Amino acid sequence: MKRFVAILAVSLAGALPAVSQSLEDLNIQIHGYATQGFLYTTQNNIFTTASSNGSPAWTEAVVNVSSQPIPKLRVAVQARYFLLGNYGNAITLDWASADYKANDEFGVRFGKVKTPSGLFNEIQDIDPSYIWSLLPQSVYPIGSRNSNLSHYGGVVYGTLKFDKKAGKLEYRGWAGEREIGADDGYWLNLREEGLGLPNGLGGVVTGGALKWRTPLPGLMIGASDIKNNRWEGPMTDFIPGNIFKGTGDVTMMGTFTLNPLNVPQYFAQFEHDKLMVAAEYSRLDGQGPIQFPGLPASQFKFDDREKYAMASYKVSNKLNAGAYCSQIFDHTIALGPPRYSKDWAVSGRYDFGQFLYAKAEQHFIDGTKQDYDADLNPNGLNPTTRLTILKIGVNF
Amino acid sequence: MKKFLNAFLLAALASIFVVQAKAQVIVIANPGVKTSEVSKSDLKDVFTGASTSLGGSSVVPILLKAGTANEEFLQAYIGKNDAAYRAGWRSLVFSGQATMPKSLDGDAAVVEFVAHNAGTIGYIGKATPHDGVKVLAVK
Fold it and tell me: What is the pLDDT of residue B102?
């Protein structure tokens, strides 16, 4: 029902150009987009969907309302309906912010703001803006997208222009509080072991990013770093009862702690005429204790090395084609398929016009370090997966 | 052979008109904008949302909704077709980095709007009367 209402709302908003025009006179704009995806896998069920049977459980709808009361000030809010398998199925506040841009060298936005880390984080949810059906999952896992996308706090930004021989330097700095939701993909494996984070996990986050637009036209080189303070939250451990021993279900309450961590990202992008080439490397290295009363603390640890390289080419005004290779390795896991995921993807996008487009993508995935739900894969995981994605989108 | 020559001449004439047409779009600005010339690179930055200043003045781009001048401008200075260009702006809107520039119905409307709104910059066909605005030379 939520899904239907969300799509209907976006469609109605898009079908009211007269209203949009009158709002434009008041410096208020309404924009939106909606996408419907279809997933099919030949082996494992992926992203908590029943994809091996073919699954249409991937729907998104976004409405954006913005106003510019004075030239240097913008106020905007964006709401989203997101459904992917067992993720989402809810309408959430994407971001809501006020933005004051004094000049090209300095601006500030605050509220619930998008986190400008990495190459694509700010636009990773904006399906109309790229060719891919699915961004490289090593760096931009879709099950954790809502958590990584934004934070409560502020961002300062600007562009420093040098002479023609030195290019331009874009900077971003941010601080605030981020929350990883209770149903986030990061917790998928914990949930399957009966461990839950009923309030999610959150805390203070700071970061900075630099993008150097080099003197070579089209070439950008950049780096960003995210720093999380110590995050702590309540954790539950559900222990099912044993009818033979006459014991009932038990839920223990404990504490989950993620020690301070840094997430460095390095990236580069080159665009020339119809060609785009990009690459990114990131490392997610963290650890912390899980403590239940009366039991010794257990330690968890992860050390993900994430990277991808991609290229796309505009074949014609309407057709875009591309491919990427995305890899993730967790160096704390023993050798074998659960340690890694290597994903080769071939993608195509066709724009029917300014408002309507379709995408098709084929993935060749080796390894099982992906969002695989054990309940949906009761016979265990196959070390390889072939994933086909079809998607249609509309935006206005 | 004669038919071939006629077709060739027609094609040659058409290409001349196309080349001439490319020079038929001009960039205009409100008279309050300090500069009188703009580099292609700066013009692209302003019309893609990467920059909001030009020669020491804050500027706001004004777009044409459609038409020959719109297509010529986007091809010559932005390097994109209209659909791809507006998709780029929508990315900025959906990521909270910009609002969509105002799009007007015709060249005369752009002249009228730019003439009466400080800091605005637009583009029109060269043949359109453009009293009340300044023409920026694109270097």
Answer: 92
CB contact under 8 A, A31 and B93: yes
pLDDT in tens, A339-371: 899 999 999 999 998 889 999 999 999 998 877
ipTM of the complex in this document: 0.83
Q: What is the pLDDT of residues B65-74, one digit of tens each?
A: 999 999 999 9
Residue with tokens 């539950």: A236
For residue B32, give its domain range: 25-138
| CA gap B27, B44 in Å, rounded | 12
Cβ distance A271 to A218 under 8 Å? yes
pLDDT under 70: residue ranges of chain A: 1-26, 243-246
Q: Decide: A74 and A130 in contact? Cβ < 8 Å.
A: no
The domain in which residue A35 lies consists of 2-395
Structural domains in chain A (count) = 1
Least CB–CB distance from A354: residue in B53, B58, B82: B82
* Nearest alpha carbon to residue A68 among A102, A98, A111, A94: A98
For the stretch A91-135, pLDDT in tens is: 999 999 999 999 999 999 999 999 999 999 999 999 999 999 999
The shortest CB-CB distance from B83 to any of A31, A114, A351 is to A351
Residue-by-residue DSSP string for A242-294: -TTTT---EEEEEEEEE--EEEEEEEEEEEETTEEEEEEEEEEEEEEEEE-TT
Task: Identify the CATH number of the domain in which residue A123 sits.
Answer: 2.40.160.10
Query: What's the average model confidence in pLDDT over B127-131?
Result: 91
B82 domain residue, yes or no: yes
| A363, A343 Cβ separation under 8 angstroms | yes
CATH of the domain at B48: 3.40.190.10
Cβ neighbours of A95 in B, within 8 Å: 96
Residue whose C-alpha is closest to residue A314's, from B57, B81, B73, B134 = B81
